[in-house]
Design a protein that fits this description.
transmembrane; mainly alpha; 5 helices; single chain; membrane; DoxX; elongated; transmembrane helix; DoxX family protein
């Protein structure tokens, strides 16, 4: 595996591990943004936190099984496209919108490097 892909994979996995853990534990800092986007608090554990954590663990496992990293990064790209749609739909441009943009960029770059 190329060093740039390894570094990017670890960065994307770390970001999603942090974000997924915050969602699973319903961190107070994320609640206002989720509420403004119209996301019920009951969705924080599943599907939001669970899917982010699954993507992060898939990326980490992909360090040994490259096809798994490609699948996980593709899943994260889909997840964050939907997250951005959710924020745009209600004109929510809180900091969480821009974090979702950053996470989408990380997942997209990881996907692009993993398929090249």
């Amino acid at each position: 595996m190329h060093p740039a892909l390894t570094t990017l994979t670890l960065l994307t996995a770390a970001a999603n591990l942090f974000s997924g853990t915050c969602a699973v534990f319903h961190l107070r800092a994320i609640l206002p943004g989720m509420s403004k986007a119209g996301v019920p608090e009951s969705w924080l554990t599943f599907p939001i936190g669970t899917l982010k954590l699954a993507g992060a663990f898939g990326l980490l496992a992909g360090l040994w099984l490259p096809a798994l990293s490609t699948a996980a990064s593709f899943g994260l790209v889909l997840f964050f496209v939907c997250a951005l749609y959710t924020h745009i739909r209600v004109s929510d441009y809180t900091p969480q919108f821009f974090l979702a943009c950053t996470f989408l960029a990380l997942a997209s770059a990881t996907l692009a490097l993993s398929v090249s």
